[in-house]
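Task: sequence design from structure.
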């Protein structure tokens, strides 16, 4: 019994069959054509992987940038913490005093608490936006330096392809440590 491939390859246009010899020749030809691609694969493609998140967490420049940003925003963060504590204390005091307050005083203090809360939420939002913007500024510079280091490593070590941030990676091709080392730990 002939395989589907042999049956198909033994047929020629016009409906004539070449027989077993023709089918065998077609099979040998197909195998030869397929083996022409093997040398390209036999050379191998050198692939590397880089974990950008690790670079932004563990590299020297990233740690320096994180410390710098935290120190820049410490005063504002402390102020937000103080405002939050103050609001909490005033809300607790209001809860204790509410039963003995007149209706107008209760409404007035509720409005004050609401205004304080709105102000606090606005300042937190502004803080977070400023913090994220500043962090992105610092880290984009680090990513640019990391990309330069990756290109340098790729050229020096003859990588054909370097992938950043994949779902799963064999540790054998992970060059993140080389990049972190290149950036200075």
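Answer:
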């Amino acid at each position: 019994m002939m395989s589907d491939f042999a049956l198909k390859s033994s047929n020629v246009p016009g409906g004539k069959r070449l027989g077993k010899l023709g089918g065998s020749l077609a099979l040998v030809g197909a195998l030869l054509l397929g083996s022409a691609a093997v040398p390209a694969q036999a050379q191998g493609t050198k692939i590397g992987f880089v974990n950008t998140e690790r670079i932004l967490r563990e590299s020297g420049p990233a740690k320096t940038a994180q410390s710098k940003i935290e120190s820049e925003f410490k005063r504002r963060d402390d102020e937000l913490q103080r405002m939050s504590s103050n609001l909490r204390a005033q809300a607790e005091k209001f809860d204790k005093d509410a039963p003995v307050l007149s209706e107008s005083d209760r409404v007035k203090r509720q409005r004050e608490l609401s205004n304080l809360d709105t102000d606090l939420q606005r300042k937190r939002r502004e803080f977070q936006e400023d913090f994220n913007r500043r962090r992105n500024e610092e880290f984009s510079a680090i990513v640019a330096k990391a990309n330069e280091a990756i290109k340098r490593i790729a050229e020096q070590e003859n990588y054909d392809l370097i992938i950043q941030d994949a779902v799963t990676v064999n540790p054998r091709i992970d060059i993140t440590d080389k990049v972190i080392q290149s950036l200075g730990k």
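The beta strands are 47-50, 161-164.
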